[in-house]
Amino acid sequence: MAGSVFDSGLYGKLFGAGEAGRLFTDSAEVRAMLLVEGTLAKVQGRMGLIPEISAAAIHRATLEITLDPSGLATATAQNGVPVPGLVAAFRKEMQAPEHAQYLHWGATSQDIHDTGLMLRLRQLLVLLERDLRALLSDLAALAETHAELPMPGRTYGQHATAVSFGSVVAHWGWPLVELVAELEALRRSALWVSLSGAAGTGAAFGPQAGALRAALAEGLGLGDPGRSWHADRGPVLRIAGWLARVATALAKMGEDLVLLTQSGIGELRLGTSGGSSTMPQKQNPVAPSVLIALARQAVALNGALLSAGAPRQERDGGAWFTEWLSLPQLCLCAASAVETARGLRVEPVPGAMAEALELNGGVIHAEALSFRLAEHMGRPEAQAAVKEICKRVAKEGRPLAALAGETWPEVELGGVFDARQQLGEAPGEARGFARAVRAL
């Protein structure tokens, strides 16, 4: 098995991450760091920190020169970070030492590495927002179409009261609506430029340090934090936490789909499913299972990042390396989860839902019966009476509706045993979710 399923020729399509996969390659990382170096030189030239002619030459060269990431491997192993090797290789390829000497002026490796990372994370969030909005549009249509389709609601895996399929879909989608709504604030609080020099003081830039950082932020379209964040991994952790929550929200849908498509329930049908090598009758919920697995991995990776969230002193190699091991995988977990969810085709099976509502003599209507009886007796007495009659249903094998009619002939029981009349706010929740999606 490959070291990562996302890079695997065998498993890559099972855990497909779509366009996001291209953001987490060695080539993409090198390109992002070169973009930072070129923009840094450009703004330094404009501010008179380096010769403007050299700044223009460096900026142009970062757009034209390509570096082979494998050629930087030895230097990266030696230095523990790819930037020194990248700077040396770029200066050599530029073949203009009088200009190349001003490359990386006053910056430190972490400035270039972290800022390049933020450029890629920015693009990741763009892709995820686009795909989440498309997924939400599909879920909204499904919820609205089936807002009043009754099915059993379950708590602790047992029948509770009737819900609507549309409300179940809405419960899958609401967390995603809120996650998309958080993105604007997340971008402001996390997509930051880093430019603080060797130990985070910006001393090499002199009194222009703050202005230079702001200019670099503007040139790259990132936020200016107004401070050093070398040893504050809050921006990374905020993005990582958001990604883990995306994967977890989608896993809720996956968990429900595994249960509702299983043999003996079959209240939902998947448009695509997997087969068994030996059992031709099997229709395995492969995609929902992928969602569950991705979320478990995402939660574990987010935990690893949190464990590295208190770096020692001004820079901590162990903490930083933990980010490199964990964050790209977490990003791809979230991207793969969204990609997988978008590929799902879920269809309700109304007949199976109707049959399930009448299982065990229709005792799913017990709560509705107790509230109707509470109009004629005390609530505790009504609950106790319904408990006793439910025992008779189990013992005698007769429907709850028949026994209730015989026991309380004086009570009007119309609508109590009609699930469509016992949905409460479920249809409204489904339609409210659809409205919220359209308003995003």
From TrEMBL:
GO terms for molecular function: lyase activity. It comes from the Bacteria. SUPFAM superfamilies: L-aspartase-like (SSF48557). Residues 361-434 form the Adenylosuccinate lyase C-terminal domain. The keyword Lyase applies. Belongs to the class-II fumarase/aspartase family. PANTHER family: ADENYLOSUCCINATE LYASE (PTHR43172), ADENYLOSUCCINATE LYASE C-TERMINAL DOMAIN-CONTAINING PROTEIN (PTHR43172:SF2). This is Adenylosuccinate lyase family protein.
